[in-house]
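Regression test case RT-17, inverse folding.

Input:
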């Protein structure tokens, strides 16, 4: 008696169905630079000679982390792809690069075409927000490798910037101003601790509400990462953005100093903005001090800009026009690392 691939746990017909469901979402992200059809062995993207005299490619890759657990628990699969895109494109745009295209990797023990289609819908939605094309990816069915109903998701992005317009933090000096752009909640970092603090019981997640918020725990943990690409690209055309930091794993403490040249640190005013209710709750439940909190979560700030003092008013006004909520959260100083103040 023959033993088929399906007998071993891989149903190729499910793969065909999944691809068909994915295509309807992928097509919405394509543009005139994309050559060929999804399903080829490689994705093709034409680089037009309109980026400047010395185009430089900038790449980034990331996953979603254990936030995936909340997608599994709730059966909500159409948002987690936005997180995957955001974690990559927000990194790339920190260097001043415009994201061009994105690839995803979706791995599962047993493929459910509908779930795969919903995941890729989220990826496509994220790509549309970032203005980049989803030109390919990989769907891997691996029986016995993942628990039933669980999967992994990762992504890869390539962007482009003229060498003369790269944002690298080299010109940041003491006395520059740090502007924080509000986050959309927890984004996609610190979820191993979030799960320990808020739990994984679906009924409790649905019923428990965050004080002073009105949102349930489930609303908050499923809220997708904000994508800042179009905002940063619009700002860089009008102002001198000396440095841009994406606040992800490691929070303020690890990410903001990454954009500083040697000998420069920062003073952060923790009272510069009202802490969002979810972070007040996480602070209360964890008992962490500022060092622990700001080294784990974004604390309500998803992106930080370093600008000259003279540009602050203009940048804040433009951010408001672009629909962002922004705050002056500190300044650069001589030294290393971050100092937290309570002004």
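Golden output:
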């Amino acid at each position: 008696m023959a033993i088929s691939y399906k007998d071993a746990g891989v149903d190729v017909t499910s793969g065909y169905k999944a691809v068909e469901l994915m295509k309807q979402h992928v097509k919405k992200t394509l543009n005139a630079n994309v050559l060929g059809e999804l399903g080829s062995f490689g994705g093709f993207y034409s680089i037009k000679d309109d980026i400047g005299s010395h185009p430089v490619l900038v790449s980034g890759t990331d996953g979603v982390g254990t936030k995936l657990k909340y997608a599994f628990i709730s059966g909500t699969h159409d948002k987690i792809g936005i997180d995957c895109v955001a974690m990559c494109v927000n990194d790339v745009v920190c260097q001043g690069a415009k994201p061009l295209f994105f690839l995803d990797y979706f791995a599962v023990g047993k493929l459910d075409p509908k779930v795969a289609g919903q995941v890729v819908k989220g990826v496509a939605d994220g790509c549309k927000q970032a203005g980049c094309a989803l030109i390919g990816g990989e769907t891997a069915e691996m029986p016995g490798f993942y628990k039933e109903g669980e999967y992994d998701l990762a992504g890869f992005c390539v962007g482009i910037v003229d060498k003369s317009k790269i944002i690298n933090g080299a010109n940041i000096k003491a006395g520059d101003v740090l502007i924080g752009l509000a986050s959309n909640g927890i984004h996609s970092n610190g979820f191993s601790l979030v799960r320990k603090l808020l739990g994984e019981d679906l009924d409790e997640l649905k019923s428990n509400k965050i004080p002073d918020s009105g949102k349930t725990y489930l609303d908050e943990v499923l809220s997708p990462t904000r994508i800042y690409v179009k905002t940063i690209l619009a700002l860089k055309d009008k102002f001198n953005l000396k440095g841009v930091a994406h606040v992800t794993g490691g929070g303020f403490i690890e990410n903001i100093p990454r954009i500083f040249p040697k000998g420069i640190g920062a003073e952060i005013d923790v009272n510069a903005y009202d802490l969002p209710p979810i972070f007040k709750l996480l602070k209360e439940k964890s008992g962490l001090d500022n060092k622990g909190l700001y080294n784990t979560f974004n604390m309500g700030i998803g992106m930080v800009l370093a600008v000259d003092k003279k540009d602050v008013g203009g940048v804040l006004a433009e951010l408001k026009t672009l629909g962002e909520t922004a705050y002056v959260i500190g300044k650069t100083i001589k030294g290393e690392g971050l100092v937290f103040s309570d002004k």
